[in-house]
């Protein structure tokens, strides 16, 4: 297979965002606000993978209620134990294939220390190694040292969990949709010795204290594999002291204008990141209410493409065609002008073709039923 190069264009790149924080730091609400902005205000394009026994539903709309600043109309999926890397990868793949544009995982920490996660997998491998060593032990060698056997087995026992974790990370990096991962974080503690005087004598006492003098991004440790946060496009810490206000772990120059340091994360931050990810293409405009004229495009919609339509208009048309299957997508694609096809080629390959294939697969059982 020949390897080729083409001019690099930032066109609808996927974002991988991590929000880590302790309980009460505003992770879930912040993630949903960002997700709404990334989805251009359309909650129906958001999927939430929930490992917290349905807690994400605390922010869902009630029956008959309309979405608001703190109530969201997302699609919800429960992820139950075991929280293996494969289970997470399968859930992400399902949401991605279903065509959601933003996927929130709350929480991703279970993949590391939850039931069936990396630590449980490692512990099970150590136990199996100890059992094998015990079976092979000759009593003439002396008593079996289980602690030493566990120590010897520990490093090798990480091999399989780490391999599966890398496959999970690879799945995240290949995802078409934007991903927002919520992670738990724990505060680092420091051991200090203090002096106390009692009855005229000085005593030293060891205490565990909060390291208040440490920078917040070093004071809080996300609960995840140690390199996981640096796989992200953006990784942020949230604290209970200032819920929803991000402290950057990884925030590159090109994203700093979108992420409001010192301010609560909002839908506007998500919209700004969405605009950056589109490479300058306009965000899709919300549809006008039924019975009302669409009106003139806003000033920031951008220059229209040939025929009076923006690139987003053409992209929306491809989205609708893909929902009807591969044949309809092919017809819609061929009807586009050559310069528009060049602009939307990446979107075709990464989003519309997989969505059309999923539509074909969903329709196949009905077609077979009709034929029968």
Short recap of the structure:
This protein has 372 residues and is of the alpha/beta class. 39% of the residues lie in helices and 18% in strands. The two termini are 42 Å apart.
How does this model look, in words?
The chain has helices spanning 27-38, 85-97, 110-113, 118-136, 146-157, 159-173, 216-219, 267-277, 311-322, 326-334, 338-371; strands spanning 16-21, 46-50, 75-78, 102-106, 178-187, 190-198, 201-209, 220-222, 234-239, 242-250. It is of the alpha/beta class and 372 residues long. Among the domains are: 16-117 and 158-187 and 213-277, Rossmann fold, CATH 3.40.50.300; 304-362, no CATH class. Strands 1, 2, 3, 4, 5, 8, 9 and 10 form an eight-stranded mixed sheet that branches. A two-stranded antiparallel sheet has the order 6-7. A hairpin with a 2-residue loop joins strand 9 (234-239) and strand 10 (242-250). Helix 10 runs antiparallel to helix 11. The protein is globular, with a radius of gyration of 26 Å. The two termini are 42 Å apart. 32% of the residues are buried. This is AAA+ ATPase domain-containing protein. Residues 363-372 have a biased composition (Basic and acidic residues). It comes from Rhodoplanes serenus. InterPro entries: P-loop_NTPase (IPR027417).
The CATH topology annotation of the domain at 16-117 and 158-187 and 213-277 reads as: Rossmann fold
Q: In CATH, what is the class of the domain at 16-117 and 158-187 and 213-277? A: Alpha Beta
Largest sheet: 8 strands, mixed
User: What would you report as the Rg, rounded to the nearest angstrom?
Assistant: 26 Å
H/I helix tally: 11
Distance between the termini: 42 Å
Q: Strand share of the residues?
A: 15-25%
The secondary-structure element order is: EHEEHEHHHHEEEHEEEHHHH
How many beta-strand elements?
A: 10
By CATH's scheme, which homologous superfamily of the domain at 16-117 and 158-187 and 213-277 applies? P-loop containing nucleotide triphosphate hydrolases
The whole-number mean of residue pLDDT values reads: 85
Envelope shape: globular
- Name the structural class: alpha/beta
Q: Extract low-pLDDT stretches.
A: 281-307
CATH architectural arrangement of the domain at 16-117 and 158-187 and 213-277: 3-Layer(aba) Sandwich
- Percent helix, as a range, is 25-40%
